[in-house]
């Protein structure tokens, strides 16, 4: 899941009702000011039943967790489901970049990847989401009408016309429906 | 750019890693793969190479091309005062202890283009320790060492670096440390008067001295667990007792066998101290 401007609010409203036992690990990449060593984790810990952690390098994906991309690192996934961090060049003026994580997740999980792109004033995430879609995974974009800033959703819809456009509530119920199976 | 299917790409990369080791003596086998794959795909795109086979041919036939490849594959992106709270902690918690030694030795492992090195030198200067400190600045890559020695950075970054400097506890006029020149700044070379630069490969080279402080930040993230363990042992052999080891903000010693002989000196900023 990725977002930029408006992404914190959007992701919180999707995630707030997911139970602590939610089986699918969720990785959240939000653009943040690289110069500010703020604590996003605290905010998520307070609001969610899921366990919110800031990713440590080599940490392994586990159910019931929401993994937050640390400020100023790109987040990649290895075949053994552990995280690799990377401080290489900015992508789309961003580090962490949503494209980097989406692409890497699709390389590991292929058609089992679900990419969700939320509100944001950036083009980051579109090509990664398109990569997920190309691998047979699911591409979900927040309804631009509802998004606080619609640049990011519109950019994704532009290059992936067949993506699923959903409002936040609908994204949440979709994710919850996966739990019931 | 189109790539052959993933499994094929990955197999070919593994074969290439073996060949590079044989031909040039650089062993990338212990590198975390997600990043290696990404760097190679990026390199192919930038160089407009259409396949791994083309890359392989170019690498095997041209050692200069290999040098360029090496520089692109190993990430050299860095900044001054990255994580200011880390530098603040060095200033407040580590340098006062180091100041009790008559002569201080520091290893900046994976110094890249020198941004961290100059940040460190400025801290030492302001603590009045620079004159009796020797810093060993090493990197796998000779090219970046040359750049580090020059101390020339883009002027466009200076606003951010200046903010980082103040957030790290700096109180001077930051611009006193450099001169501006056509979009670049050149740092005062007296800051690195006591620095020795030389190539060192953490994946294959051995310990070469004993240090009071080793900095190796955001280098181990590119290594797999086994290679990380090798490097931790190397650092352990290279630290005096009560010496300090500083890692990147998301790197930890806790999984390592050497962790039992270290205590966190600053948990958040990943500064560890060797026990006596």
UniProtKB/TrEMBL annotation, chain B:
UniProt cross-references to Pfam families, sorted A to Z: CheR, CheR_N
Name of the protein this chain belongs to: Protein-glutamate O-methyltransferase CheR
Matches recorded under InterPro entries: Bact_Chemotaxis_MeTrfase, CheR_C, CheR_MeTrfase, CheR_N, SAM-dependent_MTases_sf
Sorted UniProt keywords: Methyltransferase, Transferase
GO biological process assignments: methylation
Biological source species: Pontibacter diazotrophicus
Residue span, CheR-type methyltransferase domain: 10-253
A molecular-function term among this protein's GO annotations: S-adenosylmethionine-dependent methyltransferase activity
Lineage top rank: taxon: Bacteria
PANTHER family, per the entry: CHEMOTAXIS PROTEIN, CHEMOTAXIS PROTEIN METHYLTRANSFERASE
């Amino acid at each position: 899941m990725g977002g930029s401007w408006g992404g914190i609010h959007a992701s919180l409203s999707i995630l707030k009702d997911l139970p602590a036992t939610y089986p699918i690990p969720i990785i959240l990449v939000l653009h943040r000011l690289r110069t500010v060593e703020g604590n996003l984790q605290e905010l998520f810990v307070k609001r969610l039943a899921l366990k919110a952690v800031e990713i440590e390098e080599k940490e392994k994906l586990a159910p019931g967790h929401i993994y937050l991309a640390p400020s100023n690192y790109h987040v990649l996934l290895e075949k053994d489901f552990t995280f690799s961090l990377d401080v290489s060049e900015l992508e789309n003026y961003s580090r962490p970049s949503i494209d980097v994580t989406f692409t890497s997740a699709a390389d590991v999980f292929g058609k089992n990847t679900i990419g969700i792109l939320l509100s944001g004033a950036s083009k980051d995430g579109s090509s990664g989401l398109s990569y997920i879609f190309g691998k047979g995974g699911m591409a979900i974009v927040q309804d631009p009408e509802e998004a606080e800033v619609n640049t990011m959703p519109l950019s994704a819809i532009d290059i992936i016309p067949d993506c699923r456009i959903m409002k936040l509530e609908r994204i949440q119920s979709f994710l919850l429906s996966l739990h019931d199976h | 750019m189109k790539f052959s299917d993933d499994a094929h790409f990955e197999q070919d990369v593994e074969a290439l890693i073996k060949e590079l080791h044989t031909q040039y003596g650089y062993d990338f086998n212990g590198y975390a793969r997600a990043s290696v794959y990404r760097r190679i795909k990026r390199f192919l795109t930038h160089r407009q190479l259409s396949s791994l086979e083309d890359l392989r041919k170019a690498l095997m036939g041209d050692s200069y091309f290999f040098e360029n490849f090496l520089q692109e594959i190993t990430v050299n992106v860095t900044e001054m005062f990255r994580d200011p709270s880390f530098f603040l902690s060095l200033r407040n918690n580590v340098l006062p202890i180091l100041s009790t030694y008559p002569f201080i030795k520091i290893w900046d492992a994976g110094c890249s283009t020198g941004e961290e090195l100059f940040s460190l030198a400025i801290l030492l200067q302001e603590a009045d320790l620079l004159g009796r400190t020797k810093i060993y600045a090493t990197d796998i890559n000779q090219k970046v060492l040359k750049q580090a020695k020059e101390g020339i950075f883009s002027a466009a970054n200076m606003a951010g670096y200046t903010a980082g400097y103040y957030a790290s506890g700096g109180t001077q006029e930051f611009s006193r440390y450099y001169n501006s020149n056509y979009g670049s700044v050149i740092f005062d070379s007296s800051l690195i008067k006591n620095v020795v630069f030389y190539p060192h490969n953490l994946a294959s080279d051995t310990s070469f001295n004993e240090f009071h402080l080793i900095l190796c930040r955001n280098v181990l993230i590119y290594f797999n667990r086994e290679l990380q363990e090798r490097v931790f042992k190397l650092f352990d052999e290279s630290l005096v007792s009560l010496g300090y080891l500083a890692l990147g903000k998301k790197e930890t010693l806790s999984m390592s066998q050497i962790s039992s002989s270290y205590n966190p000196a600053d948990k958040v900023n990943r500064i560890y101290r060797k026990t006596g």
